[in-house]
Amino acid sequence: MTVAADAAQQSERLREMVERVVSALDLEAQVDVRDDGETLTATVSGDDLGLFIGRHGETIDAIQHLALRVAGGQGDDRRRVVVDASGYRERRARALCQEADRAADQALRFGRPIALDAMSSIERRVVHEHLRDYPGVDTYSEGDEPARHLVVAPAT
Amino acid sequence: MKELLEHLARALVDDPGAVVVEQFEEDDGTVVLELVVAEDDYGKVIGRGGRTAAALRTVIKASAVRRNRRVLVDIVD
Predict the structure, then answer these.
(1) 3-state secondary structure at position A80
(2) Measured between CB atoms, does B6 come within 8 Å of chain A?
(3) Residue A152, C-beta contacts closer than 8 angstroms, at least 6 positions apart
(4) Which among A14, A13, A47 has a CA at the least distance from the CA of A30?
(5) Which residues of A touch B4 (CB under 8 A)?
(6) Nearest chain B Cα to A22, which residue?
(7) d(CA B16, CA B14)
(8) Are residues A67 and A16 in the same domain?
(9) Measured distance CA(B15)–CA(B5) in Å, rounded
(10) Is the ipTM of this complex over 0.90?
(11) Where are the beta strands (DSSP E) in chain B?
(12) Cβ A120 vs Cβ A138: under 8 Å
């Protein structure tokens, strides 16, 4: 199979899976799938997507994990898969970055490492990248999934 | 709920034809969904550290909330 055909098939598998979940949750929502070559993103838009997102994003993160297994490909075809709903990921990223700034500030003030709450690998990446340019602190991950979390420490 | 679990399991495994979901109801009204897949596909529905099984349960539970039901997903291996 050609690369393009493969990519189209991954997009289609992702769309079908997310649409099935949307309909099983009886939601009136539209599913759009975008492929920028590196990341496949399924965005759900509609009213009242609380059930799709779940408490602390538990449900949308579970859907995203399944989506990666179903449509993320294997070996050389592996890609990132993101499932989003009405701007949720952006709101969440903003909240995570605020938390990260607070932790960085404390790490410098108290001169010791500060642990953040457990996060998914995608969320940890957001925070690592956010703090990369923060002067005087390093970040690393600790612990095992699903309790794996980020630590912000004074730079050594 | 049953249809969703069937669909998700078929999308995850190498042998979708072997996916079977049996539905029971307990006395307290809890719906039990028993998932059977091909011998070699259990790793696909359980995942590293049980992450995929946990994700399946979370999504099926969300669909049960919509129906005011309690649901248990049992992966039979």
Answers:
(1) strand
(2) no
(3) A100, A103, A104, A106, A107, A113, A114, A116, A131, A137, A138, A139
(4) A47
(5) 20-21, 24
(6) B63
(7) 6
(8) yes
(9) 15
(10) yes
(11) 20-25, 31-36, 71-75
(12) no
CA nearest to A62 within chain B: B55
Q: How far apart are CA A85 and CA A44, in angstroms?
A: 5
pLDDT tens per residue, range A1-16: 556 668 889 999 999 9
Which residue do the tokens 């990369």 mark? A132
Residue A21: which H helix or E strand, with range?
Answer: helix A3-24
Kindly list the residues from chain B whose CB atom is less than 8 angstroms away from the CB atom of residue A16.
11
Of A51, A63, A146, the CB nearest to B65: A51
Q: How many domains does chain A have?
A: 2
Among B28, B13, B24, smallest CA distance to B77 is for B13
Hey, what are B67's tokens?
């129906």
Q: What is the CATH number of the domain that holds B56?
A: 3.30.300.20
* pLDDT one-digit tens code per residue, B35-56: 999 999 999 999 988 999 999 9
Residue B47 token pair:
């995942």
Domain of residue A16 covers 3-86
What is the C-alpha separation between A61 and A57, in angstroms, rounded? 6
DSSP-derived pairing of the beta strands A149-154 and A80-85? unpaired
Residue A53's CATH number:
3.30.300.20
How close, in Å, is residue B1 to chain A by CA atoms? 7
Using the 8-state DSSP alphabet, how is residue A90 labeled? H
